[in-house]
Design goal:
mainly alpha, about 0% strand, single chain
Length: about 425
């Protein structure tokens, strides 16, 4: 194998195995930062040895063995100075020096290890931005540069954010565990929020040259499925998985051949992934079986997505039900964005004038002041009412607010079309 082939293999293995590797090491060290350092040491060793000696039969087990040996060496050198390292050393030594079944031992607990790592990375002691960054770093396998570019901050800034997050977890002595009781509910909400924020950034990128970033959605779905397997009695976990599966089913139809956005009502629904739709509807059914009297926000949003998934054509969409679901969602989680989405549904159910009246009422909302979809929706409704000049001005306002190149181009095209219709 050539050096370049080996490096590509190492990169692929690292993307696939680093979350499991870090999770397993964090179980031993009880320190997320230390676990990542050990995993990086194993990666460096692979970069040195694999191009010369070939890729081992079980790369994941090889990486874990190297990382554990490195941890043991460190523990032996510091055993008198740091009791914590002494405990780590005893834990590792108890597994036997040869460690013949490392991959099997890791697989036995990998689901629980990853779940613990998710809850640790999403601990509320960290600010939201740090939780997202650390989750993408540890569980998404993204580099600091990739995370920085995804959220439009300089790489040094993101690096500092990640370092501070790991230091905060260590100093706060955050336990490496899945919480129980009331704390589980509190922490679970934070975990679900982070996973969905990651998914949303992939589904409709806030900035950059691409409208969608499927890789981020795939990572969020993977994390959601892990949560659903391990927190199987939590309705909102299944609700979030259902929502992501249903939305991800539209990926092939969401962009044109040149990456241009295709809006929901214009999509070729034959290109929607029926397998993902089936999985999403099954997860929604499970969430509904578990839910209490008042459904949670992810379950409600999944029910909204299901209305679209069940409609074979845009004309078959049950907009009355969608309006009703948005009304309940607005009661459960009041938000001007929810009200804007409800206005769109009302416009489809009762006509653009009815929707526009609701949109105009949101014009003074401080939270929507810089939200490009408010003038975008307004422009669309004005265009349907034949108010072309006002529609063009609204689309031009949206152009000024959006940071995504694809959406900007779409809004510019809509504005030009309305200007032409008005002349």
């Amino acid at each position: 194998m050539s050096g370049s082939d080996a490096h590509r293999t190492i990169e692929t293995v690292w993307r696939m195995e680093s979350p499991r590797l870090i999770a397993g090491l964090a179980r031993l060290t009880r320190d997320v930062g230390r676990a990542e350092e050990l995993a990086q040491d194993a990666l460096v060793a692979a970069l040195k040895q694999w191009p010369e000696e070939g890729v081992p039969r079980n790369p994941a087990a090889w990486l874990m063995q190297v990382a554990k040996h490195r941890a043991l060496d460190t523990a032996r050198h510091e055993i008198m100075a740091r009791r914590k390292q002494d405990e780590i050393g005893r834990d590792i030594e108890s597994e036997g020096p040869a460690m013949p079944d490392l991959d099997e031992a890791l697989d036995d607990e990998v689901g629980d290890d990853l779940l613990r790592l998710i809850f640790t990375a999403c601990h509320p002691v960290l600010p939201k931005e740090a939780r997202i960054a650390l989750t993408l770093r540890l569980l998404g396998g993204l580099t600091t540069d990739e995370i920085a570019r995804a959220f439009l901050v300089p790489e040094p800034t993101m690096a500092q954010r990640i370092v501070r997050a790991k230091k905060t977890l260590s100093e706060a002595k955050v336990p490496y565990e899945v919480p129980a009781g009331a704390e589980l509910g509190e922490r679970l909400a934070s975990v679900l929020e982070v996973v969905y924020l990651i998914f949303n950034e992939g589904y409709a990128a806030t900035a950059g040259e691409d409208w969608v970033r499927p890789g981020l959605c795939e990572e969020a779905l993977r994390l959601g499925r892990i949560l659903a397997a391990r927190a199987s009695d939590e309705p909102e976990v299944h609700g979030l998985v259902a929502l992501m599966e249903l939305q991800a089913s539209r990926f092939r139809a969401r962009v044109g051949p040149d990456g241009e956005p295709i809006l929901l009502l214009d999509q070729n629904r034959a290109r929607w992934d029926r397998l993902l739709i089936g999985r999403g509807l099954a997860a929604l059914e499970r969430a509904q079986q578990l839910a209490g009297v008042v459904p949670g926000p992810y379950l409600l949003q999944a029910a909204l997505a299901a209305c679209h998934a069940r409609a074979r054509t845009a004309e078959e969409t049950d907009w009355k039900r969608i309006v009703a679901l948005y009304t309940v969602l607005g009661q459960v989680t009041p938000s001007p964005v929810v009200e804007l989405n409800r206005a769109v549904a009302v416009s489809m159910a009762d006509g653009p004038a009815a929707g526009l009246a609701l949109v105009e009422a949101l014009a003074g909302e401080p939270a929507l002041k810089r939200y490009h979809l408010l003038p975008g929706v307004r422009g669309d409704l004005l265009a349907k009412l034949g108010r072309h000049q006002e529609a063009a001005e609204a689309f031009e306002h949206a152009v000024a607010l959006t940071q995504n190149a694809r959406e900007r181009a779409l809004m510019e095209e809509r504005a030009a079309k309305e200007r032409a219709a008005d002349s």
